[in-house]
Structure to design on (92 residues):
């Protein structure tokens, strides 16, 4: 999987070629050296208003934070369960 990052301007130009110039996604993707999946994702993202994109970014960041917190809490719970079992065995 490629880790190439593209600027916002690059993405917007690719989207314009598909939406305004009516060029096929496969053609634009091939010419720019990106996957068709990326182009479709960019078209979907940039078809929304800037406000909606900002809200989506905030929600994505919050979801990521909450998932990390769930993972941390699950690990803590598992440690406490093991500790409780260990001390129950020691006292019994």
């Amino acid at each position: 999987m490629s880790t190439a990052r593209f600027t916002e301007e690059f993405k917007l130009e690719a989207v314009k070629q598909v939406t305004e110039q009516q060029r096929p996604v496969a053609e634009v993707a091939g010419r720019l050296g990106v996957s068709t999946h990326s182009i479709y994702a960019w078209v979907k993202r940039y078809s929304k208003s800037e406000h909606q994109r900002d809200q989506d970014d905030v929600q994505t960041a919050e979801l990521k934070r909450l998932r990390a917190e769930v993972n941390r809490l699950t690990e803590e719970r598992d440690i406490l369960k093991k500790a409780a079992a260990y001390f129950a065995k020691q006292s019994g």
The first helix runs from residue 8 to 19. The helical segments are 8-19, 25-32, 36-46, 50-91.
